[in-house]
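Bench notes, afternoon.
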Amino acid sequence: MPDNQLDRFNAEPADRVEEELRACNAAPSFARTVAAGRPYPSAEVLVARAEAVSRALPWDEVTAAIAAHPRIGDQVDGSSAEAEASRREQKLMGSADGALRTAMVAGNRAYEERFDQVFLIRAAGRSAEEMLAELQRRLGNSVEDERGEVTEQLAQITGLRVRGLVSP
């Protein structure tokens, strides 16, 4: 019997591990690629691999992954692992004042019109004010620069979620 979460992760059948990993990053090839690297000697190596795989995804897979993410500030319903992770990660947006929430809604709308996708940011550890400032800053990015930022944010979010799979 595995004595910790990493041992469990390394020992589980591939289909079960891939299901857990899809909740961390919905890109089509992500879960299979990370699961194929087992066994991982440490959580740090697993997280680094998950982030590296995320950063190397082709853009069409990045867009598939971000399609599973709700807008920053939206109320997330459901009991899926993705929904639960989003609620945890966005908890500081829930306490934002009305003016900030209104600005975030307007910013999300402008971002979606400009880039034709939801604004993706690692919300964990950021205040609502920081997230709004980042949204406003990134509205000035070129499409190419924004793709790079989105991919990096996806990698950071993925890393946090994968760490959660193997942390007590």
